[in-house]
Amino acid sequence: MNSLFETTSSQSILDRLDKLTPETPAQWGKMDVSQMLKHCQAPLDIALENITLTSKTGWLQKQIMKLF
């Protein structure tokens, strides 16, 4: 599995992100590129405490994201 902490994997992920355009079709689901990127960024923002969650469920999600 690719990891953001491995140089080669990290570069591979960045290269894939660079290829995305607003016209890139969804391969599954209904999200466009912008929605997908925001969706993928949310767990990282929670783990880095850029987003503050207030519910008990949010606290649990935050603890789980810190493990990764």
Tell me about this structure.
- The chain is an all-alpha fold and 68 residues long.
- The chain has helices spanning 7-18, 33-47, 56-66.
Mean pLDDT, to the nearest integer, reads 83
The outline comes out as: globular
Residue share in helices? 55-70%
The unreliable regions are none
Count of runs of 4 or more consecutive helical residues: 3
Distance between the termini: 13 Å
Number of strands: 0
Give the SSE string. HHH
Structural class: mainly alpha
Query: What Rg do the Cα atoms give?
Result: 14 Å
Report the biggest beta sheet as strand number plus sense, adding barrel if it closes. Answer: none
- How large a portion of the residues is in β-strands, by DSSP E? under 5%
Concise synopsis of the structure shown:
The protein is 56% helix and 0% strand.
Give a topology summary.
Blueprint: H1 7-18, H2 33-47, H3 56-66
Helix pairs in contact: 2-3
List descriptors.
single chain, 68 residues, mainly alpha
